[in-house]
Amino acid sequence: MASFRPTHGTVTNESCPLHYWSLGTSGPLILFVPGGNGHGRQFNPMLTALSTRGFTCATFDRRQMSSSQPAEGSKRVILSPPQQARDIRAVITALGFAKATVFGSSSGGIFTLQFAHDFPDMVEHAIAHEAPLTNLLPAPMASEVYDWFWRLIEMWRAGEREQAAGEFASKLIGYADEGIPKTVSPEPGNAVNFWEYEMPTLAGYVPNLWRLVDNKTSVGVMRGVRSRDAFFALAVDELAKVLGCPMMMVPGHHQAFEVETEEFLPFFLEMLKVLEERRAEKK
After folding, report:
1. Where do the AB hydrolase-1 domain residues begin and end (predicted)?
2. What does the pLDDT average to over 10-37?
């Protein structure tokens, strides 16, 4: 991606410098929020594609991930979704915008919904791609997945790190499908941060979705066809029911926006169109 020349910046929020970058300067802002792998590089293909279509596009490395490391002397902190929402706010503000369309994938989808809850006036549209809100799953699956998360956390804490990470990765189906390019690997420290500081919170966290409904926030949700019946994909069905929002089946697996960008992009643009039309109908 030799022609990829974004503008970089850093904003410090709550003792952590957040490294962000953007492409395009003339259109409305679309901010991409990473999930558990923490790094924004996975969205560079989307930034490239959308910046040529009249959008300002940006992403960032999340707190304690990749290039967004805590300030010297600051301790690492346990994941707080409201703090992640404040980080999103800080990046949008640093980019010079009052509001944005925010797209988050995986746990980034959870943080996107939290941002929409906490700062509704800053949301143009919120799009959550395969947000793993597993407590929304029907019984007994919700309880089984919750217990499975905690069994993996205990394995990690007992020193069985490779086994825990391997079992977790085995549920991310679709990545090994024939002909699918490999995703960009995050820095090794990101996985450690995820397991030690993020996973215990994510195992059961659900933002106040009913407040989003009350606020009439513009929300759309997506699930990938390659994810098939993965628990995080099935959770999207339940999320759409709660929110009463548009749901779209999109190409690819959990990171299709990175490795099947050309196939993913038309669905992303269609979701924006649907959300715009839906909002216009409500006026």
Report:
1. 28-150
2. 96
For residues 239 and 131, is the Cβ–Cβ distance under 8 A? yes
Point out which residues pair with 111 in neighbouring strands: none
Burial readout 81-114 (b: 16 or more C-beta within 10 A, e: otherwise)? bebbbbbbbbbbebbebeebbbbbbbbbbbbbbb
Q: What does the block give as tokens for 230?
A: 């993965």
The span from the CA of 234 to the CA of 31, in Å, is: 25
Tally of residues, the chain: 283
- Write out the two tokens for 270: 């269609």
Q: 74-78, 159-163, 239-243: lowest mean pLDDT where?
A: 74-78
Distance of CA 133 to the CA centre of its chain: 12
CA-to-CA separations, 274 to 120, 161, 248, 269, 277, in angstroms, rounded: 19, 43, 10, 9, 5
At 231 the three-state DSSP class reads: helix
Q: Indicate the DSSP class of residue 98.
A: S
Q: What is the dotted CATH code of the domain comprising 7-282?
A: 3.40.50.1820
- Within 207-262, strands assigned E span 219-224, 247-250
